[in-house]
């Protein structure tokens, strides 16, 4: 039977609301005219980077470069590649030679190899405008529009070139579309993360609220009896001894000691609709527990009308609380000196003392 009830409760539990998924941002239409398939990567000789070229090496490199330029003029790109490679091996530390060979590789439709040469040229000379120019062109042939725009803009900044500027204008429309798309995706990602974080906080707050309401509900249904034997010092069935918690405490089953006679019983307390409504408030029970653990903590709630109203109500029922809200502490020795006082103190209240500070 009990298992069936638990199963019913599980089935009745509403599902957690899901955060609606945002609409997918469409990728922009890109004009890929002129884009080619990358070639199979084949590493070309880069020369010995630790080599210190001699005068003969520099002279040989210059001679090979001349032959390469002549081959280019004749449209013999393979021969030009061979001569530039020989020049690089003779003088591997020349950024210009690597950039020149990259330009030949572009004519041979080998952008991957051209990028490798441009990377080398830029590593040798970070201000190599030719390195950025030909790498930008290689990225354009591969359809890497944003990278192409960045490289070509850098080349024009370092050393303006008409060809580089024309190539830059060619890639900018596609690059701008992709950059806008990337920014929109990033904004959406940030918004989703923020919404998820807010939802986690909301669910945690909701769970805490429901737990407090459930606890207050069980407490009210149990009438403060055996279901909550450890909720407060001494439980409710035996009252709160003045030495172990609240001065005078809440009344036990047989009444409240120290209030001038038998106080209100538990039935009287829990038959009061205002008290029961207060106990169901998730803000009230933690406050009462806090006050029970240390009577001086009552000062924390001096400006809370809910707590003040409940304490006044409990005092009127003979359930003494510390005299912080205009009432006398139940069970206090002596009485109030005010003969017009209508409280349970009987007109014998001792002089008031300032509350002890909360040192917690």
Automatic annotation (TrEMBL):
Q: Which InterPro entries match?
A: STI1/HOP_DP (IPR041243), STI1_HS-bd (IPR006636), TPR-like_helical_dom_sf (IPR011990), TPR_rpt (IPR019734)
List the biased-composition ranges (Gly residues): 232-264
Sorted alphabetically, the keyword list is: Coiled coil, Repeat, TPR repeat
Q: Disordered: where is this region?
A: 1-73, 232-268, 331-360
Keyword match Repeat: yes
Superkingdom of this entry's organism? Eukaryota
Query: Is Transport one of the keywords UniProt gives this record?
Result: no
Q: Which SMART domains match?
A: STI1, TPR
Q: Where is the composition biased (Basic and acidic residues)?
A: 1-21, 59-68
Q: Where is the STI1 domain?
A: 272-311
Name the UniProt record assigns to this protein: STI1 domain-containing protein
Which species expresses this protein natively? Caenorhabditis briggsae
């Amino acid at each position: 039977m009990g298992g069936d009830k638990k199963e019913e409760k599980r089935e009745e539990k509403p599902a957690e609301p899901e955060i609606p998924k945002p609409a997918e941002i469409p990728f922009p239409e890109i004009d890929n005219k002129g884009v080619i398939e990358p070639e199979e990567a084949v590493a070309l000789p880069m020369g010995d980077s630790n080599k210190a070229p001699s005068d003969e090496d520099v002279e040989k490199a210059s001679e090979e470069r001349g032959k390469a330029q002549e081959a280019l003029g004749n449209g013999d790109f393979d021969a030009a590649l061979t001569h530039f490679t020989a020049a690089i091996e003779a003088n591997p530390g020349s950024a210009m030679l690597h950039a020149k060979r990259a330009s030949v590789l572009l004519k041979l439709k080998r952008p991957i190899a051209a990028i490798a040469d441009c990377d080398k040229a830029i590593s040798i000379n970070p201000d190599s405008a030719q390195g950025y120019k030909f790498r930008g062109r290689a990225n354009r042939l591969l359809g890497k529009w944003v990278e192409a725009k960045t490289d070509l803009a850098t080349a024009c900044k370092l050393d303006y070139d008409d060809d580089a500027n024309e190539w830059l204008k060619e890639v900018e429309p596609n690059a701008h579309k992709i950059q806008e798309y990337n920014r929109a995706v990033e904004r959406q990602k940030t918004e989703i993360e923020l919404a998820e974080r807010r939802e986690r906080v909301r669910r945690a707050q909701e769970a805490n609220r429901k737990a407090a309401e459930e606890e207050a509900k069980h407490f009210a249904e149990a009438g403060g009896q055996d279901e909550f034997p450890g909720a407060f010092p001494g439980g409710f069935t035996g009252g709160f001894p003045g030495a172990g918690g609240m001065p005078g405490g809440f009344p036990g089953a047989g009444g409240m000691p120290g209030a001038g006679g038998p106080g209100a019983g538990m039935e009287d307390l829990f038959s009061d609709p205002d008290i029961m409504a207060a106990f169901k408030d998730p803000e009230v029970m933690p406050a009462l527990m806090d006050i029970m653990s240390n009577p001086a903590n009552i000062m924390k709630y001096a400006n809370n009308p809910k707590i003040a109203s409940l304490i006044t109500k409990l005092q009127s029922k003979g359930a003494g609380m510390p005299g912080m809200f205009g009432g006398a502490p139940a069970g206090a020795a002596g009485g109030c000196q005010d003969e017009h006082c209508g409280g349970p103190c009987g007109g014998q209240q001792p002089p008031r003392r300032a509350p002890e500070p909360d040192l917690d």
